[in-house]
């Protein structure tokens, strides 16, 4: 069993009379890239702030590196880096000078750490560029460089991808994977858009209204992706009935979009020719037939009971 790096047990955080976190149980294991997914206001920041020490639970307990209690958690937090709010950088200082400023302020002796973290975050070439001329993606990566300066083992990142353009998202994904694989960092990263964290997360925690609805591994989530064939035809309702009965397919008609949905096991060979030939022979006009896959967002929406993500 992998070591548990961060754990919340029956945690509640209450603002006024409203719980922001409601009996949360979750854990991050060593080597994970844990994606914390929830729409705005779900409780992501409140949960992450418990691990950084910016919030304390009203009920329940948290652990870091197996340590509990104020003293234990303070010790464990030395092994943790975090970006919850964008750190303040001087706009007219270069990237290097900004990091050098923080190195001295934080009492880190080794001056070579600045070069190391600039290289780790892919910013070394831009080290002399002023912060004000950085793109949003570069600014986020400089924040991560800062959080790496004391060589943490666990990184906590609150919505670092929010607002990035597609190129920035790809850069961030590469950086996360590199830090995880090459530097052995365990990472928890939050987002309100599931697909942003796909292809990098090793496990997922879905949070809504202050509750973890489900935790699952990337493999388990992948297995939730269903393949299906979408067919539009004349007299769709009747055609769906025929397809189910005579071809023994899992076909259902949806009147809202006048479409037949036929579901298959993943990796199945789709009998698309058989379907189109059957419909043709039975006298239906085939308007369209396409193979599709449920997306991760579809799964998330279903988990939330059909509400949208934003
Ligand atoms: N300091 C506070 N005082 C009162 N209520 C708060 C406070 N901080 C957060 N909340 C409330 O707690 C709930 C959870 O907020 P939180 O910021 O943790 O959500 P989130 O998932 O991080 O959302 P976002 O992506 O919008 O930051 C929300 O209803 C929010 O309004």
The tally of beta strands, per DSSP, is: 13
CATH topology group of the largest domain: Rossmann fold
Per DSSP, the total helix count is 11
Structural classification: alpha/beta
What is the CATH homology-level superfamily of the largest domain? Answer: P-loop containing nucleotide triphosphate hydrolases
Shape: elongated
Number of domains: 2
Q: Architecture of the largest domain, CATH level 2?
A: 3-Layer(aba) Sandwich
Series of H and E elements: EEEHEHEHHHEHEHEEHEHEEHEH
The main β sheet shows up as: 6 strands, mixed
- Rg to the nearest angstrom? 24 Å
Query: How much β-strand is present in the residues?
Result: 25-35%
> Which small-molecule species are bound to the chains here?
adenosine-5'-triphosphate
Measured between the Cα atoms of the first and last residue, the distance is 36 Å
With strands numbered from the N-terminus, the spatial order across the biggest sheet is 5-6-7-3-8-9
- Helix share, percent: 25-40%
Low-confidence stretches: none
């Amino acid at each position: 069993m992998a070591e548990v790096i961060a754990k919340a047990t029956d945690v509640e955080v209450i603002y006024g009379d409203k719980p922001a976190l409601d009996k949360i149980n979750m854990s991050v294991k060593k080597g994970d890239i844990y994606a914390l997914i929830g729409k705005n206001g779900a409780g992501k920041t409140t949960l992450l702030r418990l691990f950084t020490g910016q919030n304390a639970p009203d009920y329940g307990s948290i652990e870091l590196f197996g340590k509990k209690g104020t003293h234990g958690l303070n010790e464990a937090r030395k092994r943790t880096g975090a970006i919850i709010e964008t750190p303040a950088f001087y706009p007219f200082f270069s990237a290097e000078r900004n990091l050098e400023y923080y190195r001295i302020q934080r009492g880190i002796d080794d001056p070579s750490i600045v070069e190391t973290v600039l290289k780790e975050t892919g910013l070394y070439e831009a080290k002399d560029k002023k912060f004000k001329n950085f793109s949003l993606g570069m600014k986020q990566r400089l924040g991560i460089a800062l959080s790496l300066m004391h060589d943490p083992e666990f990184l906590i990142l609150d919505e670092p991808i929010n607002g990035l353009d597609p190129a920035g998202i790809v850069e961030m994904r590469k950086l996360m994977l590199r830090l995880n694989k090459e530097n052995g960092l365990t990472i928890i990263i939050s987002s309100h858009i599931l697909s942003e964290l796909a292809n990098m997360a090793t496990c997922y925690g879905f949070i809504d209204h202050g509750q973890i609805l489900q935790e699952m591994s990337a493999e388990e989530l992948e297995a939730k992706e269903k393949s299906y064939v979408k067919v539009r035809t004349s007299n769709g309702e009747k055609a769906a009935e025929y397809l189910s009965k005579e071809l023994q397919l899992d076909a259902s008609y949806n009147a809202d979009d006048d479409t037949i949905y036929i579901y298959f096991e993943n990796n199945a060979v789709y009998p698309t020719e058989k379907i189109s030939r059957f419909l043709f022979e039975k006298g239906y006009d085939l308007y369209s037939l396409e193979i599709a896959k449920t997306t991760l967002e579809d799964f998330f929406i279903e988990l939330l009971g059909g509400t949208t993500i934003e």
